[in-house]
Amino acid sequence: MSTNVAVYPGSFDPITNGHVDIILRGAQIFDRLIVLVAVNSEKKNLFSLDERVDLIREVFGGNPKVEVDTFEGLLVKYMCARDIRVVIRGLRAVSDFEYEFQMALMNRKIFPEADTLFLATRENYSYVSSRILKEVFGLGGCISDLAPAVVIEAMKQKFKPARRKSKEAR
Ligand code: ADP
Question: Smaller CB count within 10 Å for the chain: N or C?
Fold first, then answer.
């Protein structure tokens, strides 16, 4: 068994300071933390898989405890193949709980050795999600303290045409 290794799966479209906080705290608990970016082809992502991975690598490049990988399909298959037993997930509000709890139990049903470790959000990031960041940024709002600088820069590039139009309309 790979002891003291955990995976932290998600879409990370893109990584926010809420994710960064969970990763840093997870890396204090485990020797190795693998941030697992989901291929989830059915979701319409703003950033491609490679872009999402690269952004996380840029943020954690200097941290030897943090690795980045991708997975497609069942998370527990990835874990089973590498004998990893712990999944980290972040909890923001009660609204996250129902889905997360269901997923945790389903993962355990498929891979009984798997356990999910929930880390509570830091209160100043409790309202932060990738979705709301994209919405607010796309409409011209400032979110510079809610995501790493490399992410803000990448979002500027993605939203250039939309933000230019919204400025012209003002
Ligand atoms: P998914 O599509 O799997 O929900 P996300 O990238 O949205 O992927 O989230 C990955 C994980 O990070 C989830 O467990 C989510 O609850 C958690 N998370 C997202 N934003 C925050 C935040 N601001 N604080 C704590 N946890 C968060």
Answer: C
Is the whole-model pTM more than 0.85? yes
Which tokens hold the place of 137?
Answer: 């940024």
Tell me how crowded residue 52 is: count the other CB atoms within 10 A of its CB.
26
Domains, the chain, in order of start with CATH, read: 5-126 (3.40.50.620)
C-alpha 129 – ligand 1 centre gap (Å): 7
Ligand 1 pocket residue status of 40, Cβ below 6 Å? no
Q: DSSP secondary-structure letter at 141?
A: -
Q: Tens of pLDDT along 104-144?
A: 999 999 999 999 999 999 999 999 999 999 999 999 999 99
- pLDDT above 90: percentage of residues in the chain: 83
- Distance of CA 90 from the midpoint of ligand 1 (Å): 6
Q: What distance in Å separates the CA atoms of residue 50 and residue 53, rounded to the nearest whole number?
A: 5
| Residue 41 pLDDT greater than 80, yes or no | no
Determine the atom of ligand 1 nearest the C-alpha atom of 125.
Answer: 23
For residue 169, what pLDDT is reported? 64
Calpha distance 138→99 (Å, rounded): 27
